[in-house]
């Protein structure tokens, strides 16, 4: 059987690169001399060259692309996460493309399938709305490697993670050590699974110490944003607590503003503790005590794992855990009798 | 002449969608029944169907994609800008893909050319490092519509912009109105052209009022970041000024922390003014007075303009200007004699 003519054969005979041939046959060859263009078209006709879908796919795939799906690009947590992704992608000569469907699962699925049509090499998925069904239908089905950093731990596959339960325990121990006896919790009105783990770890330690947290009285729920924390200040004060653990730093920072406007001194009258260690914590007043998630490392680690998965396929799902730790700043202090 | 068989003809005869035929012929048809796959392959052989590069390009282009090039994804200014892009892209059913080469022009150029290979419909370019050469070689050459929101105003093409000169004037008038007589400037150690416009507008008004700003004494230069502003606090104090205009909010916020650590009361002892109105300004202490750029609107406006350009090509370059205005918060106050 005669060997099928390939684009490489044309390129060799024309004395130009494969890319040049590809661009000329794609009618994108205006940058090349008329002679080169004509030579390539003549060779195509001479050999009755038929472009091959797979060959074309290979060309497209030669520039390696990683899709990074985050819930919200403007959120500093995910900004830092993406910087971690970029640091590794750049080294490995992958192009990171970030997309965000702002928690709309339908839009997310549509964007995803379009990325796959564009021959994406792999995906880093940091999204709480991505469902197992979408992953199966759209991603696994097309054999696209992916790494999860999600907030619901419901999907199968390679993942990077931290222990939220442990992080919650660390926060509780810190506030107990400072002598607080009445402690409130400020959490999301629509918590993801990892937030529940975080709060369960917190409550477990508080209750083991002999104190109580009454759900209906000591747990305040609000949107997981600065504005959510800000407007919850009144309710947090109404609990009579001397310390509060907020589910993330954004909420804690909003709460700081709300307390400040009410003339409450932090930490003298109220200790405030956050979670995440976003890069703004050093620039609010007072500087925010928090539990650190290694956000940059999570992005970098997910990307390393993904590139390994792209280069060496294996069936075994891998999980990599990253440490959490206390970052003590100025927003928490010893209990002071009123 | 006999009409060339198209993928649509195959799809019609097979009773399946064009996408189905495309996927089967791409060897990505495992999801379809064996009967469907065989039917499609048989029709391809019967009609000697030859996939057409242009047809394939049309299919790829049918899902419209906008590339958004920003210098730094983790910067809240560009986070908000991208949210503006997304708001319009979503309505118009374009997919926004964000990429960031962190101010490395070579990497930027490489990423760009790869995006173009992937049949991107257009580009929103918010980058100070993008050169005219790159735009000509990579973007215009491939006939990719683009909109600029850059910091050097050196390139030709459609653009969205604000008046930095006017913004600087607004800042100066505000500080003069508060009675300040000795005013310092904190700007970048590597200013883009728009920052120079901003500072020229500022100086013009100050000098017109009879006051002076001595470059070597009253203008402090530092990296355009929170850390830059923070470490510049000592130098700013050494000027003996009672008010300072920082080139952007990040620097101003860093400066607030530096002043606070030195026991300087803002605004009683020092008024601090920023530029941009990023969404953190309300959550620092004291809340930051600034000149607002309509960041979200700039992203949305650029995207609207781009989609119009994609849909109706014209030769005329367009420029859309957006207003700047004073946002008075708590970090500036009347001059108080020491």
Features:
homodimer; 338 residues; alpha/beta; 434 Repressor (Amino-terminal Domain); Rossmann fold; four-stranded parallel sheet
Please give a quick description of this structure.
Chains A, B: Keywords: DNA-binding, Repressor, Transcription, Transcription regulation. The first copy, chain A, is α/β, with parallel strands linked by helices.
Explained architecture:
The structure is a homodimer of 338-residue chains. Chain A is an alpha/beta fold and 338 residues long. Chain A has 14 helices and twelve strands. Chain A has three domains: 54 residues, 434 Repressor (Amino-terminal Domain); 128 residues, Response regulator (Rossmann fold, 3-Layer(aba) Sandwich); 130 residues, 3-Layer(aba) Sandwich (Rossmann fold), CATH 3.40.50. Helices cover 45% and strands 15% of the residues of chain A. In chain A, the strands form four sheets. A four-stranded parallel sheet of chain A has the order 2-1-3-4, with helices on both faces. Chain A has a four-stranded parallel sheet with strand order 7-6-8-9, sandwiched between helices. In chain A, helix 5 links the parallel strand 1 and strand 2. In chain A, helix 1 packs across helix 2. About 3% of the residues of chain A have low confidence. At the A-B interface, helix 4, helix 5, strand 2, helix 6 and helix 13 of A face helix 4, helix 5, strand 2, helix 6 and helix 13 of B. Chains A, B: Keywords: DNA-binding, Repressor, Transcription, Transcription regulation. Chains A, B: Pfam families: LacI, Peripla_BP_3. Chains A, B: This is LacI family DNA-binding transcriptional regulator. Chains A, B: GO terms for molecular function: DNA-binding transcription factor activity; transcription cis-regulatory region binding.
């Amino acid at each position: 059987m005669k060997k099928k003519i390939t684009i490489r054969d044309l390129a060799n005979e024309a004395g130009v690169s494969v890319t040049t041939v590809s661009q000329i046959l794609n009618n994108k060859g205006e940058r090349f001399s008329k002679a080169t263009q004509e030579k390539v078209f003549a060779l195509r006709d001479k050999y009755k060259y038929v472009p091959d879908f797979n060959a074309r796919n290979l060309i497209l795939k030669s520039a390696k692309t990683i899709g990074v799906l985050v819930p919200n690009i403007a959120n500093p947590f995910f900004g830092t996460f993406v910087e971690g992704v970029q640091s590794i992608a750049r080294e490995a000569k992958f192009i990171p493309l970030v997309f965000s469907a702002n928690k709309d699962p339908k839009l997310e699925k549509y964007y995803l399938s379009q990325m796959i049509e564009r021959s994406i090499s792999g995906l880093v998925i940091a999204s709480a709305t991505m469902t197992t069904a979408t992953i199966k239908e759209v991603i696994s089905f097309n054999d696209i490697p992916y790494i999860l950093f999600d907030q619901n731990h419901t999907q199968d596959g390679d993942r990077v993670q931290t222990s939220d339960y442990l992080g919650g325990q660390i926060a509780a121990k810190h506030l107990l050590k400072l002598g607080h006896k009445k402690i409130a919790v400020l959490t999301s009105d629509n918590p993801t699974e990892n937030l529940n783990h975080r709060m369960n770890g917190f409550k477990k330690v508080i209750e083991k110490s002999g104190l109580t947290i009454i759900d209906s009285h000591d747990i305040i729920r609000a949107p997981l944003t600065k504005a959510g924390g800000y407007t919850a200040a009144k309710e947090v004060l109404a609990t009579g607590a001397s310390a509060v653990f907020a589910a993330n730093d954004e909420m804690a920072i909003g709460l700081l503003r709300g307390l400040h406007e009410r003339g409450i001194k932090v930490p003298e009258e109220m200790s405030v503790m956050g979670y995440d260690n976003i890069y703004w914590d050093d620039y609010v007043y007072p500087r925010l005590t928090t539990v650190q998630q290694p956000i940059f490392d999570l992005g970098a680690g997910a990307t390393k794992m993904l590139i390994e998965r792209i280069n060496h396929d294996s069936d075994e799902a891998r999980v990599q855990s990253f440490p959490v730790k206390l970052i003590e700043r100025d927003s928490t202090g010893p209990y002071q009798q009123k």
